[in-house]
Write a structure and sequence with these properties.
The chain has 7 helices and 7 strands. By secondary structure, the chain is α/β, with parallel strands linked by helices.
Length: about 180
């Protein structure tokens, strides 16, 4: 897939855009989502809303994924970008390697030979912070990111299509994580 190049008119924040609205207890299990090379700002905004609803504590935006500075994101997020801290990172692989060093459990939503049905993926309770990766609607999750995952899972499909819209898929996976 090569290097990701980003051309923007202004510098993006690499840290959360505002202070966290809650006290983070290091002993409490946290959930975060990483969106890598998601093209649609509307999908990103929808994921922000679902992340807020399902108690995710951070949204990592990577590669070409638009940020809340995009009108398309804020159109569908309806303010969720203000309640869920977010940050932009050009290199998702570098970010995930750093989170793994901090002890995060890394999961991906992807159709892959190693993938487990989403209904079984979260049956194992963990005390680790958990990062869920969702990738490009066209090319999926970057293979380098998949190699860093502790677990990969898929959502069973019964029609002719092989995948759900990324925002819908995230909602299904986020619900499964809360069971």
């Amino acid at each position: 897939m090569g290097d990701t190049r980003i051309i923007l008119s202004r510098e993006l924040a690499t840290e959360p855009t505002r202070p966290l609205p809650f006290a983070l207890d290091p002993a409490q299990r946290q959930k975060a989502v990483l969106l890598d090379n998601i093209r649609s700002g509307l999908n990103v905004g929808s994921i922000f809303r679902s992340a807020d609803g399902f108690g995710f504590r951070h949204v990592y935006l990577c590669g070409i994924t638009p940020t809340p500075e995009s009108e398309a994101v804020t159109k569908t997020s309806l303010g969720a970008e203000d309640s869920v801290p977010w940050s932009y990172h050009k290199d998702a692989v570098k970010l995930v390697k750093g989170l793994k060093k901090e002890g995060w459990r890394v999961l991906a939503l992807e159709e892959d030979a190693r993938a487990v049905d989403v209904g079984q993926a979260f049956s194992m309770v963990t005390d680790k912070h958990t990062l869920l990766i969702a990738g490009s609607e066209v090319t999926g999750v970057d293979p380098e990111l998949l190699e860093l995952c502790d677990q990969i899972f898929y959502i069973p499909m019964y029609g002719e299509k092989k995948s759900f819209n990324v925002a819908v898929a995230f909602g299904i996976a986020a619900y499964a994580m809360n069971k």
